[in-house]
Automatic annotation (TrEMBL):
Source organism, top-level taxon: Bacteria
Protein name as catalogued: Universal stress protein
Species this protein is from: Mycobacterium haemophilum
InterPro entries with a match to the protein in the record: USP_A (IPR051688), UspA (IPR006016)
CDD domains: USP-like
Residue ranges of domain UspA in the record: 15-141, 155-293
Amino acid sequence: MTVVAGYLAGKVGLSGLHLAVRTARTLRTSLTVATIVPKPWLTPSRARIDAEYEQWADHLAADSAKEAQQHLDKVADGIEIDYCHRAHRSVAGGLIEVVEEVDAELLVLGSLPSGGRGQGQVVIGSTADWLLHSSPVPVVISTRGYRGHTGKLSRVTCAYSAIPDAVDVVRRCFQSAKRFGVPARVISFAVRGRTMYPPEVGLDAEDSILDAWASQARENLENLKTDGVVGEDVVLQVVTGDDWQDALAAADWEDGEILALGTSPRGEIHRVFLGSRSAKIIRHSPVPVLVLPS
């Protein structure tokens, strides 16, 4: 088993490498840094342009490995690191090939360095979005500017929608926490939203309904203990906010914590399926996000 981290020079920052080091150290395993270079759609020929293209791709892979190694030599003491590259028509497809070839346990990605959001939030590009829907293994995405390569992960928080169908998500989150060797907690997020109710209803009514929802969520959370899904010492919380950013920011995060999400399985397809709620949680999370395939 190993942890795979995708890295491409000039395209992503170092946040994913920092998270990959911390994850590999927590799991007591090795790290594989994978660079996926573009592969021509047309069948390669012996023409000069093909040779020049291959040379460019080789240089890109070598530069990426060199850049990653220069940084990891400073922060990844004690971790065995391999570097590899693949030519593929899509970055996501190439990363999945590497994951399967090396029998990876996790795939780690860095947030995009751009996106108009402040440091500390998750910014997903098209590659990460595709992988969240297609990866056969859990995907961990760093926040922008993530650091913290020293030490290990400290806790896994499971985002729970507080409905019966999501109980399996809690079980899978706790299995991940056990694998990491860290404690876990469960949080349900209650968000008012901009258009929760018509203006004529009034804020008092909105608050009343939101409080009622939160009360029901707390009851459902307690059922996790009653039904033996989690232990008596597990922290259960309901966090409310006017929007997703407020709710996520109010959750009292620890250094080294990650937020875990998952979905219920659909048939025999073992992949990640994300709804709009999960996407909003990911986008506003102030800590790295672990997305578990069903």
